[in-house]
Design goal:
The complex is a heterodimer of chains A (121) and B (677).
Chain A: H1 2-27, E1 30-31, E2 37-42, E3 55-58, E4 68-77, E5 80-88, E6 96-97, E7 104-108, E8 115-120
Parallel strand pairs in A: 5-8
Antiparallel strand pairs in A: 1-4, 2-7, 3-7, 4-5
Chain B: H1 26-43, E1 47-50, E2 52-53, H2 63-82, E3 86-90, E4 96-99, E5 102-105, E6 128-134, E7 154-158, E8 162-165, E9 171-174, H3 177-194, H4 200-210, E10 218-220, E11 230-232, H5 239-242, H6 249-252, E12 259-263, E13 272-275, E14 280-283, E15 290-292, E16 298-299, H7 302-308, E17 313-317, E18 323-326, E19 332-334, E20 336-337, E21 344-348, E22 353-358, E23 361-366, E24 382-389, E25 394-402, H8 415-418, E26 436-448, E27 451-462, H9 470-473, E28 477-488, E29 492-503, E30 506-507, E31 510-513, E32 522-534, E33 539-551, E34 560-563, E35 566-578, E36 585-597, E37 601-610, E38 616-624, E39 632-642, E40 645-655, E41 666-674
Parallel strand pairs in B: 1-3, 3-6, 6-7, 14-19, 15-20, 21-41
Antiparallel strand pairs in B: 4-5, 8-9, 10-11, 12-13, 12-17, 14-31, 15-16, 17-18, 22-23, 23-24, 24-25, 25-26, 26-27, 27-28, 28-29, 29-32, 30-31, 32-33, 33-35, 34-37, 35-36, 36-39, 37-38, 39-40, 40-41
Helix pairs in contact in B: 1-2, 3-4
Chain lengths: 121, 677
């Protein structure tokens, strides 16, 4: 009788394991970096608005030149498509043009039904 | 659209940032700026705009720290400055710091590096301008660094939403001290072009010293100008923010101190300076007068016409020798002619009175005429005549007059004809002013009933017509000379005179001063003759003529380079017919030419240009003094004595009035009432 319960618990554990493995396989990060293309970079919003279908990301006003946006990573997790960007800022000792800039990056992103989310690092 | 110095043809651009680098490390930058500096020096560049900088304030590091980290860069700037190249630096945009989307004022109260380098390297100052940015309302922009330790050589300029060129063509509005600095660099370029005599250091000084601190600067403490609370200074402004003030190119291109003419030398240093304000050549009527015609058209005389077409002359700001060009006509003026115009009624209520008479001594004159009022004159004058008659054959007379002198010479003439013409000028000495002070000693000698003789020595100072200040008038012109008067039965009266007129700072009543300075007094030798001849008991002829030779002695350090002798004339003819209708009336005709220059000329050596070495280049221009017209007055009058009152009707026709070549006759009709009323 006790053996019967043990077999039942074992079978349920197997089912749970199978479900867990299946679920983990669905959450796995998929590297999409190679499919995201940096079309252009610039200091003004207008510098990046060159091609149809691209996405523009701006940094906002910066006090001088020397600022830029780098595409660091992109990937999908579940139903989201993550684009990881980083702000490149000059060092205090770097020489820069003393003009107010609005750094931007223009990206071509592959077609996807997933939600695109931009994250800054 | 064009920039401040849009006429600049030689514009050099040196690349100091890499193609793909949005920020350049100091190590990379130093070699680039050193290379660019060498190229700029080789190309002869005079001003450089430096719209770059670091995020560090100049005071964030010590001199030794800067020296160790940027020695190559500092040496490059020293190299530029030693070659007298002006460096205009953006103060930096470090004030607004965006930290996690929150904008924080971290107190960027100092210019960034390298803009503030002269703080540690004072030898750079002379050729260095730091520029902070304001918006169109003169508000401190939310991102600009302040002048701080650089305030001595720091100014403000527009830097908010400035039209700039866009990559790939077109324009785009940009903001930053990088936008403000080129305004100043452009202004420097304009000044370099405008003032070729100035050194680069003087250009910097001019930019700094003409910056306007009173434009209404505002200091704003928060970051969104749309909702900012900005403070306008109730008095003064904060030079720690705005330095010496707002760039004022208009003021920088205008004189800072007094404009002066440099004459008599080949260089600015060796020439003699005359203030422009004190330099004047005011020409008298003898050289023709200017006249306003209808519709605001100005009829100008011959000399004025020559002067108005003269090329511009160079003057120099006494502040720094900056060159300014002006037209010679702004320093000269001709007297203006006013037509007599309306019919006149003149009332005279003065009369010479006998004051004292005892034996051989007789005093007469007009002691106080302060209540004298006529349509034309209202001024006091005094005369005094003291005569001693030893016998019927010899008389000595002392004449004194103050203010009004028309008794002189004409004393013995018939009042009816000598008072001809509205101005009483027909038979009076035209070289003399209407007013002044004179005294003379006159000796009368009666040989017999048929021959009388008088000799008059006179000295007098009279008012120059162009002078207005009474205290200056009396010493302006001195007359000395003799007047011989003969009466005989053959020709009735002959009056011959020789007078020497000495004018201080003037010639023939033309006032000169400043760069038109005369070395010595002008001397005019004046010869005159006047004849009266009675044709019969009722008819008499009067004739007078004046001829003058004027020698003008310009100073060697003046604009005059040569002055030819001036000949001048004036003459009158009169015809008097007594007892026309009654026993007490007379009819007269007078033809009269006022004083006129018949020839004469002068040369002016006009400074036309100066080069950057301070050498002055002159051009000689010749001017003819003879007017292009000849004024002739024709007067007819009818005069009748009515007891103590004299009624006089006259008409005057004036041809070519003011010695202007006019075709139309001027007509004047007058009614005069003369006598004690």
């Amino acid at each position: 009788m006790q053996f019967k319960y043990l077999i039942l618990v074992f079978i349920l554990s197997i089912f749970c394991l199978i479900f867990l493995v299946y679920d983990l396989s669905n959450s796995k990060r998929t590297d999409q970096l190679s499919k995201v293309i940096v079309v252009s970079k610039g200091w003004n919003g207008e510098d990046c608005n060159k091609e149809i279908g691209t996405k523009i990301v701006s940094l906002g006003e910066r006090p001088s030149g020397g600022y830029s946006i780098n595409l660091k990573d992109s990937y999908t997790v579940n139903d989201k498509f993550y684009i990881i960007l980083e702000e490149i800022a000059p060092k205090d000792t770097d020489m820069n043009l003393q003009v107010i800039t609005n750094p931007c990056i223009e990206l071509r992103i592959p077609k996807t039904k997933k939600t695109i989310e931009i994250r800054w690092e | 659209m064009h920039g401040v110095a849009h006429g600049v043809s030689d514009l050099y651009i040196y690349k100091i940032f890499k193609d793909d680098a949005l920020a350049t490390s100091v190590s990379n930058f130093q070699s680039a700026i050193a290379d660019a500096a060498s190229k700029a020096i080789s190309a002869g560049v005079k001003v450089i705009n430096h719209s770059y900088g670091t995020a560090n304030r100049i005071t964030d590091q010590t001199k030794s720290q800067w020296a160790s980290s940027t020695s190559t860069q500092i040496a490059a700037y020293q190299n530029l400055v030693s070659n007298q190249i002006i460096n205009v630096f953006a103060a930096g945009n470090g004030r607004k710091i965006d930290i996690g989307g929150v904008k924080t004022d971290v107190g960027w109260d100092q210019p960034s590096s390298p803009a503030g380098l002269p703080y540690y390297y004072s030898e750079l100052k002379e050729y260095w301008i730091v520029v902070v940015a304001v918006d169109t309302n003169f508000r401190e922009t939310l991102w600009t660094n302040r002048c701080g330790v650089a305030k001595e050589y720091c100014i403000a300029a527009p830097g908010d939403s400035i039209n700039s060129v866009k990559t790939g063509g077109g324009y785009i509005e940009k903001s930053g001290t990088s936008m403000a600095a080129p305004h100043v660099a452009g202004a420097v370029a304009v000044l370099i072009e405008t003032f070729p005599t100035l050194s680069q250091a003087q250009i910097v000084d001019r930019i700094i010293n003409t910056a306007n601190p009173n434009v209404g600067f505002q200091q704003c403490s928060i970051y969104n100008h749309a909702t900012a609370t900005c403070t306008t200074y109730t008095s003064g402004y904060d030079d720690d923010i705005f330095g010496q003030g707002m760039l004022d190119l208009d003021a920088a291109t205008k004189p800072i101190a007094v404009l002066a003419l440099s004459v008599g030398g080949t260089s600015l240093s060796s020439s003699t300076r005359y203030s422009l304000d004190s330099t004047r050549l005011n020409l008298s009527k003898a050289f023709g007068q200017n006249r306003n015609l209808s519709n605001n058209i100005l009829k100008i005389n011959n000399l004025s016409q020559q002067i108005s077409t003269t090329q511009s002359i160079a003057s120099f700001d006494t502040y720094d020798n900056a060159i300014f060009f002006l037209n010679l006509s702004s320093l000269t003026a001709g007297s203006s002619y006013t037509p007599l115009g309306l019919n006149q009624v003149i009332l005279k209520d003065y009369e010479e009175q006998s004051l004292y008479e005892f034996g051989i001594l007789k005093l007469s004159g007009i002691v106080n005429s302060s209540d004298t009022k006529t349509d034309q004159y209202n001024f006091p004058f005094k005369t005094l005549n003291a005569s001693i008659s030893l016998n019927d054959f010899f008389q000595i007379k002392y004449n004194y007059a103050e203010i009004q002198d028309f008794f002189f010479i004409s004393t013995k003439k018939d009042a009816r004809i000598t008072e001809s013409l509205f101005t009483y000028s027909a038979f009076r000495n035209p070289y003399m002013g209407m007013s002044g002070e004179f005294e003379g000693l006159e000796m009368f000698l009666k040989i017999n009933d048929k021959l009388k003789f008088s000799l008059n020595y006179t000295e007098e100072g009279y008012i120059q017509e162009l002078e207005t200040n009474l205290s200056e008038r009396k010493k302006e012109v001195i007359f000395k000379g003799f007047n011989a008067h003969v009466e005989s039965e053959f020709i009735d009266k002959i009056n011959l005179s020789y007078l020497r007129m000495e004018e201080e700072g003037a010639f023939l009543g033309s006032k000169t001063s400043g760069a038109f300075r005369l070395k010595d007094k002008s001397v005019s030798d004046i010869f005159s003759a006047m004849i009266e001849k009675k044709i019969n008991a009722r008819l008499a002829i009067y004739a007078s003529g004046y001829y003058g030779l004027t020698e003008v002695n310009p100073d060697t350090d003046s604009l005059f380079s040569d002055f030819k002798t001036i000949q001048s004339t004036s003459w009158s003819l009169g015809l008097l017919n007594d007892q026309v209708i009654s026993k007490n009336d007379s009819l007269g005709l007078v033809v009269h030419q006022p004083l006129r220059a018949e020839n004469g000329s002068f040369n002016l050596r006009l400074p036309g240009y100066a080069d950057y070495k301070g050498n002055i280049y002159y051009k000689d221009h010749a001017y003819r003094l003879k007017p292009n017209g000849r004024e002739i007055n024709y007067e007819t009058f009818y005069e009748i004595d009515l007891n103590k009152l004299t009624l006089r009707l006259s008409s005057i026709f004036i041809d070519e009035g003011g010695h202007l070549n006019e075709t139309s006759l001027e007509k004047v009709f007058m009614l005069e009432l003369k006598g004690a009323i």
